[in-house]
Design a protein that fits this description.
This is 3D-(3,5/4)-trihydroxycyclohexane-1,2-dione hydrolase. By secondary structure, the chain is of the alpha/beta class. The chain has 4 domains: 205 residues, Thiamin diphosphate (ThDP)-binding fold, Pyr/PP domains (Rossmann fold); 160 residues, Rossmann fold (3-Layer(aba) Sandwich); 190 residues, Thiamin diphosphate (ThDP)-binding fold, Pyr/PP domains (Rossmann fold), CATH 3.40.50; 30 residues, no CATH class. The protein has a 6-stranded parallel beta sheet with strand order 5-4-6-7-9-8, with helices on both faces. The N and C termini lie far apart (67 Å).
Length: 624
């Protein structure tokens, strides 16, 4: 007789953690634990069972104590970005508000196609104690709760209703997170009673498994169609997106562009695919882009988009291109490859570029097109050099702070910024020193990501390149939204250099408000009628109270000296500089962007701005 299979009696929570501990990934011939650990805040919904399991596994899966569940999710996203989606972190939160705080970060991970595992408390499956603390009751459907809100922002969602279920659910969740086309957050709802229930699991379920991220080979016919279209091009252009880095295809894309002399522009997520001084790097494209990239985009006849979902800031709400321009879209995700009647090439970027190169032969871009692109880039580079310079009593600006750091940082330091005015300023003015070193979170354009995302990136960076720094650009508005991971970085000894650039409120939205003819209202502190006596926050004192080394500087010259001191310091450093809310913005390089404007108004300035915006709409590609 065949002996019965060996089993292990474990709780559901113990089984989840033991299985995660035995998952590994092969990265360039080296094995790493697939899950780098987790971020956790305990409450009654996860401390007694999942907490017990994590305590036993703390060496294999280190648990970083978070200060806020939303920022934990941002940190997990920053970690995944630094590891190019090859490794992930889990986040564990209690039932109710602890879990619902993760919704925004789940949406960020979903929009950016980032792996993140959420292990969240849920109401009791038996319902015997209902209604329980923090349970959101639905009168007509008792199975429907707060955790169901994660379905739209998760690539994989499940509620564990029996211990045996994890045998299927865990591999399915990991498969989703590692799939290049479907990559995104996975959510597992863990009812509080089920977490502690036991089951005799087959021992083979916990055997070591080494994962590899698949590279999907594009269809030969799609490659042939793409090659034929490229061969017809007189003014081709490559849009390099974030997917180029996730595919680890930077070298292949660079060589392809060099061999065929095709100019390259970058998306926000694709920033730092090419170094600043590469002769084919024509600059960032779109609403927060460069005159150089937008100038050639307007004339390009064939556009090879690699690893980008072509969001509106890249396309200028689809006004940045000629009406008859043709697109080839290389993307691992079918959903992204077929947008706007693009000729789709569904597959891995590295494989696709190699296939295109093998079939394109001796095609080279006409010399006059390359010369035009390089001349446009030369003019843009001169503008940036002037824009980041300081002196002559010019007002302090974001661009100047960016220029100071750019001149002093190590080429492999990581730069992190997010929503607000800084994404545009970093995208336009940062001169890339090394590929893959810039993280501007604009997939979900989420204020508050900066410091938390940098903390997660720093954890990953310490696993890879511990000698380099993680540098954060954050405005005062984002700082006030979420700053507690300064404390996290100090506690965990994961050094950050944080530049707080204070312009007295939400200045970039005030700028948009003014640009659409509206009067300043409720954005700058000085323009809030419910604030009778506005005053500035002492950001340095606040950050110092969280354990950081801090300085407040008056100008870019002082900022440079303070930054060098921060580089030499072993502890998280926060440097504060006041910048002008109205002067010093990057004024060039902006493509048109569609925003809603009032069709009827008594304000003549708003009416004039509306008519001007409607005029811009005439250049919009209408789904073709």
């Amino acid at each position: 007789m065949t002996p019965p299979p060996e089993t292990l009696r474990l709780t559901t929570a113990q089984a989840i953690i033991r299985w995660l501990s035995n998952q590994f990934i092969d990265i360039d011939g080296e094995e790493y634990r697939l899950c780098g650990g987790g971020f956790g805040i305990f409450g009654h919904g996860n401390v007694t069972c999942l907490g017990e399991a994590l305590y036993q596994a703390q060496e294999a899966l280190p648990l970083y104590r978070g200060q806020n569940e939303q920022s934990m999710g941002f940190a997990a996203a920053g970690y995944a970005k630094q590891w190019l989606r090859q490794r992930f972190m889990f986040c564990t939160a209690s039932a109710g508000p602890g879990t619902s705080n993760l919704l925004t970060s789940a949406a960020l991970a979903h929009a950016n196609r980032l792996p993140m595992l959420m292990l969240c408390g849920d109401a009791f499956l038996t319902r015997l104690p209902d209604p329980v603390l923090q349970q959101m009751e639905n009168f007509g459907d008792p199975t429907f709760g707060v955790n169901d809100a994660f379905k739209p922002v998760s690539r994989y969602w499940d509620r564990i209703t029996h211990p045996a279920q994890v045998i299927q659910s865990l591999p399915a969740a990991v498969a989703t997170m590692l799939d290049p086309g479907d990559c995104g957050p996975a959510f597992l709802g863990l009812p509080q009673d089920v977490q502690g229930w036991t089951y005799d699991y087959p021992a083979v379920f916990f055997e070591k498994k080494v994962h590899r991220i698949r590279r999907t080979t594009p269809d030969a016919a799609e490659i042939d169609d793409a090659v034929a279209l490229l061969r017809s091009a007189q003014r081709p252009m490559i849009i390099a997106g974030g997917g180029v880095q996730y595919s680890r295809a930077v070298q292949e894309l660079t060589k392809f562009a060099e061999d065929h002399q095709i100019p390259v522009v970058e998306t926000i997520a694709g920033r730092a695919n090419l170094t600043n001084d590469h002769p084919l790097n024509i600059g960032p494209i779109g609403v927060t882009g460069s005159d150089s990239a937008n100038a050639i985009a307007a004339q390009a006849d064939v556009i090879l988009a690699v690893g980008t979902r072509l969001q509106d800031f890249t396309t200028g709400s689809w006004t940045a291109f000629a009406q008859d321009a043709r697109f080839i879209s290389v993307n691992a995700a079918r959903h992204d490859a077929g947008k706007h009647r693009a000729l789709p090439v569904v597959g891995d970027a590295k494989c696709a570029i190699r296939a295109l190169a093998a079939n394109l032969g001796d095609y080279r871009t006409p010399e006059n097109w390359i010369q035009l692109a390089r001349e446009e880039r030369r003019k843009w580079s001169a503008y940036v050099a002037e824009n980041v310079s300081y002196g002559d009593n010019r007002p302090n600006s974001y661009a100047q702070a960016i220029g100071v750091v750019n001149a002093l940082c190590d080429p492999r330091d990581r730069i992190v910024a997010a929503a607000g005015g800084l994404p545009a300023e970093v995208t336009a003015n940062w001169r890339t020193l090394s590929p893959g070193t810039v993280d501007v979170e604009f997939g979900f354009s989420c204020m508050g990501y900066e410091i938390a995302g940098a903390w997660g990136a720093r954890i990953a960076q310490c696993e890879q390149e511990p000698g380099n720094d993680t540098i954060v650009f954050v405005g005062d508005g984002s700082y006030m939204l979420m700053n507690s991971d300064i404390y996290s970085s100090v506690l965990s000894q994961k050094k950050l250099i944080v530049l707080v650039l204070d312009n007295g409120g939400f200045a970039v939205i005030n700028k948009l408000q003014n640009n659409t003819g509206n009067a300043s209202f409720n954005n700058l502190l000085s323009d809030c009628p419910t604030i009778p006596d506005p005053f500035g926050v002492d950001f340095a004192a606040h950050a110092q109270a969280m354990g950081a080394e801090t300085e407040t500087v008056a100008n870019p010259t002082e900022l440079a000296a303070a930054f060098q001191r921060a580089q030499a310091c072993e502890r998280t450093s926060v440097i504060v500089m006041r910048v002008d809310a109205y002067e010093g913005w990057t004024t060039e390089g902006h493509a048109w962007w569609e925003v809603g404007t009032p069709h009827i108004t008594d304000d003549k300035n708003v009416e004039a701005a509306h008519l001007d915006w409607e005029e811009g709409r005439n250049r919009q590609r209408r789904g073709v």
